[in-house]
Structures are given as structure tokens and as C-alpha cells.
Design brief:
The chain contains 19 helices and eleven strands. With 507 residues, the chain is mainly α. The chain has a three-stranded antiparallel β-sheet. It has a two-stranded parallel ribbon with strand order 1-2. A two-stranded antiparallel sheet has the order 5-6. The longest helix is centred in the last third of the chain and has 17 residues. The structure holds one RNA strand of 75 nucleotides.
Length: 507
RNA sequence: GGCCCCUUCGUCUAGUGGUUAGGACGAAGCCCUCUCAAGGCUUAAACACGGGUUCGAGUCCCGUAGGGGUCACCA
């Protein structure tokens, strides 16, 4: 256990491609643990595999954190990102950030000397040794073991050569202690017991190209950077005993471990492209709120419990209530219907001006709004009409497009009310237009009162008159509520469209 | 195959020996209603299986089955 220091967690992805939301759920758990405890959270890029490195990856990872609003107390700075060949013109995440007492660099390829030094320390202390078998030789050894139906385990005794010149190309392997057992006190899973005799080959900790492997690099960094809780995907559980041995070989205290269960697709299998392995950006672009995504991700595997049945949480509430001992042990499945519902809930809770700001970029992209600033006020007024019927931000366009641009005069058959003749529809429109034009105040309450009175005057049912008006002013059969819609639209536009409709009906 | 993890409605889950097994999403129905929604009410829907332990098991133990992870000079 790391004692006497604050909770410090980290997210340490390998920049080898685009991270899907499942990875960010693990990151969110780590972030929540840190914030709940008033501790720190930082980002470390584990790029010790140069062959799989994808230069677009660091940027995607950092911008995802930015969009989600998960702040970092440390991470790759501008210079580090430049060295990683991330776009020159990109400002980078940490230029305005601070490194609050957490030692960097935060990119593993910039820490090679540290790993080398630590690997040599283990050789000197007898916990590791040099080896230089070629991959062909190793393959042959595996085949031979296979043929004898026994498991291939590489140990110091198995190596072909032991007199290795430190100046020649070679790897350093960790010498696994195969006696006794290792117990991992996992914060989520409880005690997990491993028989050390079952452990696999002595792992390479320093590759012949001078790069460390995960096992060495992550343990060294977590120690040097003061990580108190190692929160990671459950796929790491099998190598946890090895990690404990490495930490012990250095004489360090080990951190709390928490292995987070996987997230599966709706086929029960590992998340794939087809089953929803999307990036954070894809959700953003599809019109999801970060609040909803975060809420949804947090509840995949975590629940408040204790009889509390709250479903909708703000980030602050999650920070206040999250704890690892409430994280379930079993894998969860993405169910996007629930995300949609959460999105609705968070949309409804957003203040109108804020919601309008979120909707605006989508309307601009969809060509509904051209002059955003000029039309912002109208947009804010529309929010009360919209927020109850929007599932995603992309839904807004269909409800508001006719407020911001002219509409073609609807076809005549659309201008005839239910169970009404053409002349009757025309009459009703003409009379109602007259009433609306004479209305002293063109606000929602006045409009409603006047139109309901019109139903009586004309002996029409609300459904008849109102659908007629709706179609005439919007050109649509599905719109926000009529009275509020007319008020926001304004008398001038309403009269213009009603008169056109009357003309289209021949009169 | 060895080792490890997991198993409550379709999905996310509550439950820590005694419950009519609760909630949410989704589904169906009803109500409300100017369309679409929202909202309200109601219904269907689960303890993987088999043995124990116990007066009593979703809860404890042991098996079985199923799912997943891992066994690289990848992370």
C-alpha cells in the first residue's frame, strides 16, 4: 500500500489506434476515484511498441478528455506531443495545464533511460537475467513443447546461452519466483489467489531495441509517479502476480489494484465495430450530450445501491457518490436505448440558453441556421418547445427548420383539415387569420385563448382547426405545440403563410 | 488445453439466510392531449443447472454447464 499520500490514479492507454468508449469507461472510473478522494488523475501514453504507434491517437485521446470535461493533473505537454509527431499546429492539451507534483515525462518512449536503469538494477540484484534467443529459436522451443503436449515455460534454465556480452544485442527477462502463491487484494474482485508454480515464462522486461515492455514500464512509472490505485481493464488480471513480483523485487510497496470488468457488445462478446465500439467523437457527432455519455458509462457496472434508485446523475453527483466497492464483478453489455433515454433526461435538465448553444452547431452543420448570432435569441425561445421532444441534438433540425427559412406553400391536400371540405378549410383559415391579425398581444396565452374560441365560433373540433393551422404555417404534420410555435414565429410570418395557404385553396 | 474472472427480467442493476425478488431502459396497454413528444397509471418479463449446509437459500459450500480473459522481444 502507498501510505501517507493522496489518491492518485492514471489512465495509461497505448496510442495504437482509436480508443472506443469502453476504454473511456475505465478512464472515467479512475477519474472518479481520484476526484472523489480529492486526489489527482493524470494521463500517460504507453507507446513502447513503436511498430503499432498511430500518430493520430494521442490527439484523439486528449481531445476526448477535453470534450468529456474530465480534467487532467498531468499529461503529455506540447513538446512531448511534437516529438510524437502529433500535428504541429495543434495546441495540445497540457500547455495550459499544470503538473501538480507528478514527475514526467508522461510518454513512455521519452523515459527509456529510466527503464534501462531499472532493468539493470534487477539484473544486478539477481531478479533478472540477460537472454538472446532468436525468435526462430523460441518458436522451435515452443513447437517442441507442443509436440510433447507440455506447456512451454521459458526460465533461466531453459536459455540456450548464458554468457552474454552486455554490449551485444539481448533482452532482459524477469526471473519469476515459482514458489508459494500470490494473492491479489483486488478492490473489485476481492482476493484472487494464484499458485506461483502455474506462472508462465519469465517475461521479457527490456526488449533488444532498448524499449521496455508493459510489465516493467508500467510498474516503474506507477511507482515513480506515485500512483495509489492501479485501475485497469480486467484483461490485466492474469499478469498481476508478475507485477506484484516485479514491485517486490524493487522493494517497493504495491498500490491498490482494481481490475474493471470488460464491456461487451449486445451479442455478449467483446465490443466490436458492429456491436457499438464507437469513439467518443462519434457519439458527440451523433448528438449525444457529454453529460449523458458520462452518466451512461458510469452506470455500466456501477450502481449506487443501498436501495437508492436514482438513474440520472450529474458529473458532480457521480464524483460524490462513486466508489469502487460498488462496481460489479460481471461484464456489462452496451444498451444504446438507455443512452438515448439518458440523453433526453439531460437535455431536459439543461438551461435554455445552454441547450441552444449546444444545438446551434448542429443546426449550422445541417444548414438550418446560417447566421447563428442573429438567430440565437429565436433559438433560445424555441428551447422550451423543443426540449421535451428531442432525443439527440440532431433531432432539433426537423422541429425548427421552418422557423429559420421560408417554406414552400404546402400542397392543397395538406391544407384541408380532417373531415373538412376545401371551402370549409378555406373559410376557417380566412376567419382565423383575421382573428390572429386583430389580436392585441401576439403571445402564447392570447393565441391559445383566441384559437380555442375560434373552434366554438366555427363549430370545429380543436384537432380540425389546429392541424389545419399547423400544416399551413409549418408545412409539416409534426411540430412543436401550436400556440407557442405561432408566438415565436411572430405575427408577420404567420399572416404571410396563412394568406398563402388561403390563396392555395383558391381564395 | 493450463490458470484466472464472471453468471438475478431482453439490457443496466438492487439484493449481503426469511422479500409478493425492487428499480430503470426497452416492450405492450390505458389515461392526458392540437400533431409529435413529455408525463401519469398498469401489465408481461429474471435468481443458468445439480447437489449439499440450514427450520429456511438469489444470498453460504461443492460440483456441472455456459460466457469472458490470459498464456509474445503487444499493450
Amino acid at each position: 500500500m502507498v501510505e501517507g499520500i493522496v489518491t492518485r490514479t492514471r489512465f495509461a492507454p497505448s496510442p495504437t489506434g482509436f480508443l472506443h468508449v469502453g476504454a473511456f469507461r475505465t478512464a472515467l472510473f479512475s477519474w472518479l476515484v481520484a476526484r472523489h478522494d480529492g486526489g489527482q488523475f493524470f494521463l500517460r501514453l504507453e507507446d513502447t511498441d513503436q511498430e503499432r504507434y498511430v500518430p493520430a491517437s494521442p490527439r484523439q485521446i486528449i481531445e476526448s478528455f477535453q470534450w468529456l470535461g474530465l480534467d487532467l493533473d498531468g499529461g503529455p505537454d506540447h513538446d512531448a506531443l511534437r516529438r510524437m509527431k502529433v500535428d504541429e499546429d495543434w495546441p495540445g492539451a497540457m500547455d495550459n495545464g499544470e503538473f501538480r507534483g507528478i514527475p514526467g515525462p508522461f510518454v513512455q518512449s521519452h523515459r527509456l533511460d529510466i527503464y534501462k536503469r531499472h532493468a539493470e538494477m534487477l539484473v544486478a540484484s539477481g531478479h533478472a537475467y540477460r537472454a538472446n534467443e532468436t525468435s526462430e529459436e523460441l518458436e522451435a522451443m515452443r513447437k517442441a513443447a507442443d509436440a510433447e503436449k507440455r506447456m512451454f515455460v521459458f526460465t533461466a534454465d531453459a536459455r540456450l546461452r548464458s554468457d552474454i556480452d552486455p554490449a551485444s544485442p539481448h533482452v532482459i527477462r524477469f526471473k519469476i519466483d515459482r514458489r508459494g502463491q500470490t494473492v491479489i487484494n483486488d478492490l473489485i474482485l476481492g482476493d484472487v489467489v494464484f499458485e506461483n508454480a502455474n506462472l508462465t515464462s519469465d517475461p521479457v522486461i527490456l526488449k533488444s531495441d532498448g524499449f521496455a515492455t508493459y510489465h516493467l514500464a508500467a510498474m516503474v512509472d506507477d511507482h515513480l509517479q506515485g500512483v495509489s490505485h492501479v485501475i485497469r481493464a480486467q484483461e490485466w488480471l492474469a499478469s498481476a502476480p508478475l507485477h506484484v513480483q516485479i514491485i517486490r523485487a524493487f522493494g517497493w510497496q504495491w498500490p491498490h489494484f482494481a481490475h474493471v470488468p470488460a464491456v461487451n457488445g449486445n451479442d455478449g462478446k467483446k465490443l466490436s465495430k458492429r456491436t457499438g465500439a464507437k469513439s467518443v467523437f462519434e457519439f458527440r457527432d451523433e448528438g449525444y450530450l457529454k453529460e449523458a455519455l458520462l452518466n451512461f458509462l458510469a452506470m455500466l457496472g456501477w450502481a449506487v445501491g443501498d436501495g437508492d434508485e436514482q438513474n440520472v446523475f450529474t458529473l458532480d453527483e457521480l464524483v460524490a457518490r462513486f466508489s469502487l466497492d460498488r462496481v460489479g464483478k460481471s461484464p456489462a453489455v452496451f444498451e444504446y436505448a438507455k443512452l438515448d433515454w439518458l440523453n433526453e433526461q439531460h437535455i431536459k435538465r439543461l438551461p435554455d440558453p445552454e441547450l441552444a448553444e449546444r444545438v446551434l452547431p448542429f443546426l449550422e452543420k445541417q444548414g438550418v441556421i446560417v447566421q447563428g448570432d442573429a438567430q440565437r435569441d429565436t433559438l433560445v425561445k424555441l428551447m422550451p418547445l423543443l426540449k421535451e421532444r428531442m432525443k439527440k441534438l440532431t433531432d432539433a433540425a426537423a422541429f425548427v427548420d421552418f422557423f429559420f427559412g421560408d417554406i414552400p406553400t404546402p400542397p392543397a391536400d395538406m391544407l384541408i383539415g380532417p373531415k373538412m371540405e376545401q371551402h370549409l378549410s378555406r373559410h376557417a383559415l380566412r376567419e382565423t387569420a383575421g382573428v390572429l391579425n386583430a389580436l392585441p398581444a401576439f403571445d402564447e396565452a392570447s393565441i391559445e385563448a383566441a384559437l380555442r374560441a375560434q373552434c366554438d365560433t366555427l363549430s370545429l373540433k380543436p384537432a380540425q382547426l389546429f392541424s389545419l393551422l399547423r400544416n399551413a404555417v409549418s408545412g409539416k404534420t409534426v411540430t412543436p405545440p401550436l400556440f407557442g410555435m405561432l408566438a415565436v414565429m411572430g405575427r408577420e410570418t404567420v399572416m404571410l403563410r396563412l394568406n398563402r395557404a388561403i390563396a392555395a385553396l383558391g381564395g
